Batch of 4 targets.
Target 1
Amino acid sequence: MTERVDFYVLKSAAAKQRWAFACRLTEKAYLRDLRIVIVNDTLADAQALDDLLWTFNERSFIPHKICQDEHSMDPATKVHLTVEPAAHFSADLLVNLAARLPAHWERYSRIAEIIDAEDECRRLGRERFKTYRDLKLILKTHQLDETATV
């Protein structure tokens, strides 16, 4: 059951800034021994984030896996990148980089929505915020600049 949804609102409209923040957030959660699922809009986005997770910080190591379907989810891996979360799989944190409300969102105790300054991203983020609010979930908004750390 979802306990809380955090909205991280960036001032930058650059997708790379969203991905960099997602990497830092994932690293922090991984170091706390949490299981993380990162939802992307496309497989190409997941692959780009996969590359960035290996290189964004030369001092960190975040073992992760791209999962193209529910059968490729590995319980031994702490971080999964996907386009659609598996119905039978749950984790401690769902990081949403997709423009939509992820399927099976209620299986995650916390959700992180990362919103950049691009107009459509903001509009869709507001829609998800309203949906979560209507579901009576605890919401917290964090306004961040380009240099923000988690």
Target 2
Amino acid sequence: MNGLATVLIVLGLFLLGGVYSFVKQGMGKSLITLLSIAAGMCLIAGVLRLDYWS
């Protein structure tokens, strides 16, 4: 099950990269907030899943 945790962590980091890019471009605050929440949820779920199955 570590594969799923890895995918969640990589997806969360990818979304954080999107947040960084959108902030630099000056995109809308609602889109940045939504991506930040999604990235945080993916990272937290991946770390918790990794911790749980290890």
Target 3
Amino acid sequence: MARKKFTNEYIVRSSPSILFEFLTQTSNLAQWFSDYCDSQGDIFIFGWNGSFQRARQSEIVEDESVKYHWEDSQKDEYFSFRVYKSEIANDTILEITDFAEAKEIKEQTFLWDKQVEDLKHALGAF
């Protein structure tokens, strides 16, 4: 069964450049995304409760967007972060794109909501 792409947007009280550091730097990713994070070139190793997953950082546009591909996922699947300023309120927006089974999208969205709350606390932006 094909997994579906979904996107969520969050307002984050942070400058885009500082927020971007929390999406791309291992020490910052380990504060909110995973328990452990290290990298070897464009390969990022994420750890949760003693289990590890590897992802390739495949695209990066400084202060704007970054895309990661899990090594064990389908070739066209990824998770990505895009940072931009809303035109109306000038808020910093974090857009997260991910893939999940249709029946799991709500659960995955809930998980991302929790992750973003952790991100906001790490940033001091709650």
Target 4
Amino acid sequence: MGEYVLPQGLPAPVPARDGLDRPYWDGTRRHELWVQHCGQCGTWQWGPEWNCHGCRSLAIGWESVPPEGVLYSWQRPWHPVHSALADAVPYTVVLVELPDCGGVRMVGNLVGDPLQRFAIGDRVQAVFEDHNDSPTPFTLVQWRVLS
């Protein structure tokens, strides 16, 4: 993408020091969506944890999943929550349910016109927003409504 959904000036997201979420961030750099999956009971989960939310097993791993979901909820901030966002409002924050992953939900921003029309239940697709000019390059997962 040539234009960032979020402006420069926000802290760069980096993997946690303990490495727990590194597979997710490494996947975003390859434009892949990765979610945790339990090798014992099959539970999918997000956000990352060292053990399974379903059976408490430590047999939790990461899997690449389809970068598509369903719009579950949304919010449109009109007031900046950080000074770097002063010129970016309004924008639309969405909660996306991943049906291929047991219905886990992820938060992201909706790309495009912040006043665009959409509805709960609309299908959405991940948009991988590369920030290669950051001191520590990273990629954000944003979302767009599928027609």
